[in-house]
Backbone:
């Protein structure tokens, strides 16, 4: 049905010309920035200083929001909707804008238990961490596709 | 200078033709007229005189130039135009056709400019000549610090409504309220 | 003093009246362009509402040359230059850098660099237009004084007139005896007349003294002092009252007053009169410390709440108060601090006095947290104090973490390299109830070996988890100190298949991402373990690939299972943005799960988990649809599912529809089923009128849980919103339940009135709308 393994037929990994990148993050040591760095490193990117980088990735801070998705019979929050957003911009080595500012977003739902707030707070922590991975994946994919299509 | 008009007029030129009957002498070719601090240079200069007294000097050039020191402590006035007419008795200089007068950095340009030497007044009027409007350019005074005008506070560097980028009270510190990593970093 | 309509006696009145006509009535010569002549790109919302807008011929020229360093170039029909005195007459036009000045006659003294201009004066700078009959200028700094002045601030959408209008060097505009309005020319909806007013364009703040607000020429409000924002950079000044009525407290009027002391700190004081309770004083101070943190200290106090005395006669102290400290800081990119502490006087405080934000109203406990994180290169250290103040009678206090310290190794997960895993956490749990408390030490150490190719990944992990308690249990003095250890191994692998194809002219790439996750962790009896901070994790697609089914760290769950999942994505081939992603998966259990949250709970014997599905579909920028489902093949029933779609149109129209269903199967305690539909909309019916509403309907109770309907009239220079809210509330003292007939339904009416240009704090109405209509931005 036409499916083939990625990479064997015109892969979407980052082309060699994007090999050396510089990351400029609002908060360079935050969890989200580290997850993103790790993901980029895993797909073959070298992080270098601005001077020698072929491309610059500017990463805004992650925005986490939690709202009630539904209300149970006791008029209490039955489900939460968690959203995680981050904006990113890509520039070339001279600082000219190539892509963005774009916003990547991930949304998840989870069940609330008003009788166990501490436990549910820990679940939010786990979900938020997983959402960071998915958000980083989304950003890499968009940059990879952009790099592939813009040659 | 005020006493320029008593000075004698000396003229150098390549050629000079004196026509007693018409009461005029025509100089041409790199003409240079000097009377005290007043100097006129032109391609062709005609002096209309009666009884050895020059009444009117007409200088034509591309452009003709003129300069004079109005007073000892005043800056020299430079002027040029295609036609400069100097009425000695009235102590008036008429500049016509792309006329320009410069004094202490300020320049006035237009089709017709009158320069009244005794009153040190440069007057240009587009309406009379029907030509286009008069331009004036004044450089900013960078040298000494001019004192403040009538308004109460001495002016600091003014400027447009520059939008000061003061960071509003709440900045969004990094991921507001971010607890530590969960047990396993999700794939 | 207002102008008398009849023939004007004194010349000053005539000037005033002519000016007023010119300012309020006419628009000509004030850079106002009717909407038909406005280029489409500039037709923003306010332009459509006002039927036109100011167009600044000098917009964006600020860089074009600072006047102070530029030549003065003038043209006129007649000039006279006498030494340093220059006189210009006849259509004088002067430019100095980006500053233009025009007038009938002008005299300029080069020494003092001052000029006098008379007749039809027009002074222009980017963002500013001044007109007047007579004026004086100081060309070095642009200071100007104009008599019978008219001014326009293009970006601030403000114009006005003044008997004496002056502008000082720091671009502060001073208005003596003048008026100002935001409305479009010809609209007399409102204008502000003042004895003295200053507009500080640098700070974006206007201050008026002796100010009278008139609507349609009729003065309706006077204040000795009023400050207002010139742009939305900062809230400031006297802000607009919010009027409401709530069945819990009757008439509710609050008049916020905001004082901006300095760029980095401000104060908000809100006296609030509640009919059946009394006068509540709310204060909130915000401070921005230069090192990189922001602080908010807030509080409210209501002495002798009448209604409270009736509701709780037993409580001797009827005073109600709230204290709040919030802080977020990031210092040197290494130390991140956070404080979120709220404390209230009694359990019913939020329900009674916080009618504004439904989100906070439904909170059953208030977070009281202080945390400090060290963001190291290789280590992440978190120190935290966390407790909750319970607001519900039927829920006992949750455990307090006083403190909890977590040290975690931060790896880079480089492929094809072993990565050590390490996490250690010490927690001290306390509770003011008669319950077990104690200290817990959790640690895990192990290795992971990630392998990554372009077409797939394989990550194997092995780690050992150890848990140790020091307990003291008032109910069982001889309770021993349990501990447990469990080895864990997991293998997580996946492949990426792709194919390119096009549909409806769009070049897409469809991916197929199968994933297998085998998890084994050894069993150890933990029936004597307490439960401090653990909970059952919601079962969804993410849960398939987690190495635990409990949140918190009180349980080392046993597992021998294989999760099978597949994700497909439709991606735009050029930009990589996701058009659709869908996932489906299930866990096959090879052993029963014996570790449970409640020690007495039976083993879980099912051999297959529910099927978890997830779908996110974004057909256009404006429309999105999200759905999740948990289907139980053994009972052939859906245990949980929800569907949510939202649509946003260019003109700001919003439409959301959602359905959510959840049958609690493995939750501790009796949790009622949720079966609920949601609808919300914010819909412009005409240029000025908008309807909005939100509606949560519980199908299982066949009752509207919460509904809100509202109407908004928004014109060029003012806006009014009226909102009616009906909501169920957790009745005091008894365990609330939907089907109980006496579950009282509360009603609230809120009114928000804003004079555009004079500012307005995001009031309760906006918070309610943001809370109930997804995607609404005030």
Residues:
């Amino acid at each position: 049905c036409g499916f083939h393994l990625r990479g064997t037929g015109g892969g979407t990994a980052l082309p060699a010309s994007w090999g050396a990148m510089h990351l400029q993050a609002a908060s360079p040591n935050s969890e989200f920035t580290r997850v993103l760095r790790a993901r980029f490193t895993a797909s073959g990117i070298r992080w270098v200083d601005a001077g020698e980088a072929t491309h610059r990735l500017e990463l805004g801070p992650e925005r986490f929001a939690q709202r009630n998705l539904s209300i149970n019979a006791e008029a209490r929050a039955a489900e939460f909707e968690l959203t995680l957003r981050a904006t990113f911009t890509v520039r070339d080595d001279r600082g000219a804008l190539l892509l963005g500012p774009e916003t990547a977003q991930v949304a998840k739902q989870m069940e609330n238990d008003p009788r166990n707030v501490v436990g549910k707070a820990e679940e939010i922590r786990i979900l938020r961490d997983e959402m960071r991975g998915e958000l980083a994946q989304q950003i890499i994919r968009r940059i990879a596709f952009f790099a592939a299509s813009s040659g | 200078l005020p006493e320029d008009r008593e000075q004698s007029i000396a003229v150098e030129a390549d050629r000079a033709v004196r026509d007693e009957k018409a009461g005029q002498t025509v100089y041409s070719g790199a003409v240079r007229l000097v009377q005290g601090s007043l100097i006129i240079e032109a391609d062709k200069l005609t002096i209309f005189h009666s009884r050895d007294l020059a009444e009117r000097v007409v200088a034509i050039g591309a452009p003709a130039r003129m300069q004079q020191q109005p007073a000892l402590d005043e800056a020299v006035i430079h002027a040029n135009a295609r036609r400069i007419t100097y009425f000695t008795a009235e102590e008036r200089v008429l500049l016509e056709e792309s006329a320009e007068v410069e004094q202490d950095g300020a320049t006035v340009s237009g089709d017709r400019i009158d320069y009244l030497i005794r009153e040190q007044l440069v007057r240009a009027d587009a309406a009379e000549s029907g030509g286009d409007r008069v331009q004036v350019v004044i450089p900013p005074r960078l040298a000494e610090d001019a004192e403040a005008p009538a308004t109460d506070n001495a002016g600091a560097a003014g400027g447009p409504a520059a939008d000061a980028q003061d960071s509003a009270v709440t900045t969004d510190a990094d991921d507001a309220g971010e607890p530590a990593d969960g047990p396993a970093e999700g794939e | 003093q207002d102008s008398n309509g009849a023939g004007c006696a004194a010349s000053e009145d005539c000037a005033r009246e002519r000016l007023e006509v010119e300012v309020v009535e006419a628009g000509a010569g004030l850079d106002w362009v009717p909407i038909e002549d406005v280029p489409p790109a500039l037709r923003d919302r306010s332009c459509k509402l006002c039927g036109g807008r100011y167009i600044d011929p000098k917009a964006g020229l600020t860089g074009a040359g600072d006047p102070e360093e530029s030549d003065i170039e003038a043209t006129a029909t007649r000039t006279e230059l006498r030494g340093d005195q220059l006189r210009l007459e006849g259509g004088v036009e002067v430019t100095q850098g980006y500053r233009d000045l025009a007038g009938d006659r002008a005299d300029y003294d080069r020494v003092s660099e001052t000029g006098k201009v008379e007749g039809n004066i027009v002074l222009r700078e980017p963002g500013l237009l001044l007109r007047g009959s007579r004026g004086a200028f100081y060309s070095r700094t642009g200071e100007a004084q104009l008599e019978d002045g008219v001014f326009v601030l293009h970006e601030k959408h403000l114009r006005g007139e003044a008997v004496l209008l002056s502008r000082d060097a720091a671009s502060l505009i001073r208005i003596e005896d003048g008026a100002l309005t935001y409305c479009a020319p010809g609209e007399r909806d409102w204008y502000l007349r003042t004895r003295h007013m200053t507009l500080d364009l640098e700070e974006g703040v206007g201050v008026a003294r002796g100010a009278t607000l008139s609507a349609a020429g009729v003065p309706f409000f006077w204040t000795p002092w009023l400050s207002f924002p010139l742009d939305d950079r900062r809230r400031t000044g006297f802000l607009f009252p919010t009027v409401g009525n709530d069945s819990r407290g009757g008439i509710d009027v609050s008049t916020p007053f905001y004082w901006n002391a300095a760029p980095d700190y401000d104060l908000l004081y809100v006296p609030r009169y509640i009919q059946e309770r009394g006068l509540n004083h709310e204060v909130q101070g915000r401070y921005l410390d230069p090192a990189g943190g922001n602080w908010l200290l807030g509080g409210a106090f209501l002495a002798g709440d009448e209604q409270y005395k009736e509701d709780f006669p037993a409580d001797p102290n009827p005073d109600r108060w709230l204290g709040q400290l919030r802080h977020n800081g990031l210092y040197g990119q290494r130390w991140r601090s956070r404080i979120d502490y709220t404390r209230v006087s009694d359990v019913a405080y939020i329900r009674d006095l916080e009618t504004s934000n439904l989100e906070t109203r439904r909170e059953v406990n208030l977070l009281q947290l202080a945390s400090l994180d060290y963001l190291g290169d290789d280590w992440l250290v978190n120190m935290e104090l966390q407790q909750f103040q319970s607001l519900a009678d039927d829920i006992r206090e949750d455990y307090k973490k006083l403190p909890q310290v977590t040290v975690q190794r931060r790896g880079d997960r480089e492929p094809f390299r072993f990565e050590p895993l390490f996490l250690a956490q010490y927690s001290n749990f306390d509770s003011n109830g008669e319950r077990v408390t104690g200290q817990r030490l959790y640690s895990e150490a192990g290795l992971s070996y990630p392998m990554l190719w372009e077409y797939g990944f394989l990550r194997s992990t092995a780690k050992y988890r150890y848990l140790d308690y020091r307990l003291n249990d008032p109910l069982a003095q001889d309770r021993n100190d349990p501990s447990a250890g469990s080895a864990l191994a997991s293998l997580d692998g996946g492949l990426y298949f792709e194919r390119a194809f096009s549909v409806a002219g769009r070049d897409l790439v469809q991916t197929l991402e199968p994933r297998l996750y085998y998890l084994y962790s050894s069993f150890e009896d933990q029936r004597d373990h307490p439960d401090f901070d653990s909970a059952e994790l919601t079962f969804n697609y993410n849960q398939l690939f987690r190495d635990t089914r409990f949140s918190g760290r009180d349980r080392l769950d046993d597992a021998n299972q294989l999760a099978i999942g597949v994700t497909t994505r439709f991606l735009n081939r050029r930009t990589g943005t996701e058009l659709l992603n869908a996932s489906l998966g299930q866990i096959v259990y090879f052993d029963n799960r014996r570790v449970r949250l409640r020690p007495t709970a039976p083993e879980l014997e099912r051999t297959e988990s529910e099927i978890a599905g997830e779908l996110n579909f974004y057909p256009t920028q404006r429309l999105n649809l999200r759905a999740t489902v948990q289907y139980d093949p053994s009972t052939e029933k859906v245990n949980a599912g929800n569907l949510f779609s939202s649509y946003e149109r260019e003109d700001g129209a919003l439409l959301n529809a959602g359905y959510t269903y959840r049958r609690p199967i493995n939750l501790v305690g009796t949790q009622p089923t949720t079966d609920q539909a949601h609808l919300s909309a914010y819909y412009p019916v005409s240029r000025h009128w908008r309807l909005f509403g939100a509606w949560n309907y519980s199908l299982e109770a066949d009752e509207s849980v919460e509904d809100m309907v509202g109407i908004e009239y928004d014109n060029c220079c003012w806006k009014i919103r009226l909102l009616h809210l009906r909501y169920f509330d957790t009745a005091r003292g008894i365990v609330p339940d939907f089907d109980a007939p006496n579950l009282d339904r509360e009603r609230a009416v809120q009114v928000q009135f804003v004079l555009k240009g004079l500012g307005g704090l995001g009031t309760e109405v906006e918070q309610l709308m943001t809370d109930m209509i997804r995607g609404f931005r005030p």
Q: What stands out?
A: The first strand of chain B starts at residue 10 and ends at 12. Chain B touches chain C through 65 residues (CB under 8 Å). The two ends of chain B are 92 Å apart (CA to CA).
